[in-house]
Amino acid sequence: MFGLEKPAGQQEPGRSGGLPKMASVGGFNVLSSSIPATKVELSVSCRNLLDRDTFSKSDPICVLYTQAVGNKEWREFGRTEVIDNTLNPDFVRKFIMDYFFEERENLRFDFYDVDSKSPNLSKHDFLGQMFCTLGEIVGSQGSRLEKPIVGIPGKKCGTVIVTAEELGCCRDSVLMQFCANKLDKKDFFGKSDPFLVFHRSNEDGSFTICHKTEVVKNTLNPVWQAFKISVRALCNGDYDRTIKVEVYDWDRDGSHDFIGEFTTSYRELSRGQSQFNVYEVINPKKKGKKKKYVNSGTVTLLSFLIETEVSFLDYIKGGTQINFTVAIDFTASNGNPSQPTSLHYMNPYQLNAYGMALRAVGEIIQDYDSDKMFPALGFGARLPPDGRVSHEFALNGNPQNPYCHGIDGVMEAYYRSLKSVQLYGPTNFAPVINHVARYAASVKDGSQYFVLLIITDGVISDMAQTKESIVNASKLPMSIIIVGVGPAEFDAMEELDGDVVRISSRGRFAERDIVQFVPFRDYIDRSGNHVLSMARLAKDVLAEIPEQFLSYMRVRGIKPSPAPPPYTPPIHVLQTQI
Q1: pTM of structure
Q2: Which residue stretches of 131-198 are H helix?
């Protein structure tokens, strides 16, 4: 994601007033804001749940649902773990959500008593539910909301406590290595097979697992491999939070034997290798039973190295230019522009589907393009005067200079083209991808990055060539955003997106994922005339670009240039005559 910088003057989480109010997408400024969301982590606890089991207590699970922006359908967001035999669960598994200040995010928490391993919720006993909004949780005192569980008439179903914590913005990672000495022997025939489990403490005193080391076989003096973990995962940026480390002996059947534990904090670990970072491993049961018990071995920190993760914004601030190119699908499958059913319908009173998508997405991306000059191309049309078919023509009619000024300029050129060209085919993506790739291939030093925005109805004719073009482009400083308009099935576009299966061509896989596909219909109302959520659209259109950008820079070893110092106007000293 775009490293979420805190704007000046914004409240820290946990201070009065709950979480900060985030800027709306209207004031999208690349240097002061990023995606208009902050991430919050929701912790769920219940008290006095219904008891549905005869011989023991309920085995509860919590299932969270969110409501879609458009059709208001409830969609499952995630599930906690199941906790056996309790009516007062404190669930360890958290829900991490984006918090948009300007949006009402409806939530539904359902509770079930789990009776079998079936993932089908209808097979388990319903224990009730609670409805609220994310804003309600965040806005409660201490961002802690307590509400009764409802849904079973005539029964008291208990209460639920949901706590929100804003995830810190700390971008550091640490590289740590540990070893141990004289650990307790747990195996009958050999020595132990030890591994470490790290937990960070939560606001409510519970612990969340954040890292497991590998198992080192048959030794009481293991040296584990160095591992890297983000400071956010280790302690959420709070250097004094307790970190609990447990030592286990691995067993094949999964019933790992507990050797002992110790606690530390990021601040203690950051002292590095020293006498302060040799920890006694204590097994509380053994300590209680044996008078002469000293410890179950020691764990020593061998090294501690802090690495600051660079963000997308560090490169932008350092002067990297983002160049956007727009390519519009002018093929006949879109329908005749003179007919109201056409996605290219020239309606004098309102934008057509392409115009809406272009305006909405263009307004988001133009903030990231420094000169606001966009090459705008069309593909799949017959051009005047001779009717030749072109798969990369300039919308402004000037192939030597296809640049349009701002999204308004692109819109103007798009409508002018609609009046002069004939929608035709086939739908070939490869030529416009190769067009941008030629430019990207000429600037590989990290000073420029290219983004191609393709707006299409999703019917594609040159799938094999397009895959080949994407695999080749994955080595270049470029990304592709595909926005699908209209009601078609977008299976081919999902395949190009490569989130599920990395795209390949003739046995060669793409070096990195460079395609992001967004179906525009998910963001508009039923009439098709209004974007329901610019913030959500902005987030999903731009969601993968920063990571794609960073993956290119990392592989090439390109570091961001230092940001120029802020401009201070020269001070004119006024000479006053005495």
Answers
A1: 0.58
A2: 134-139
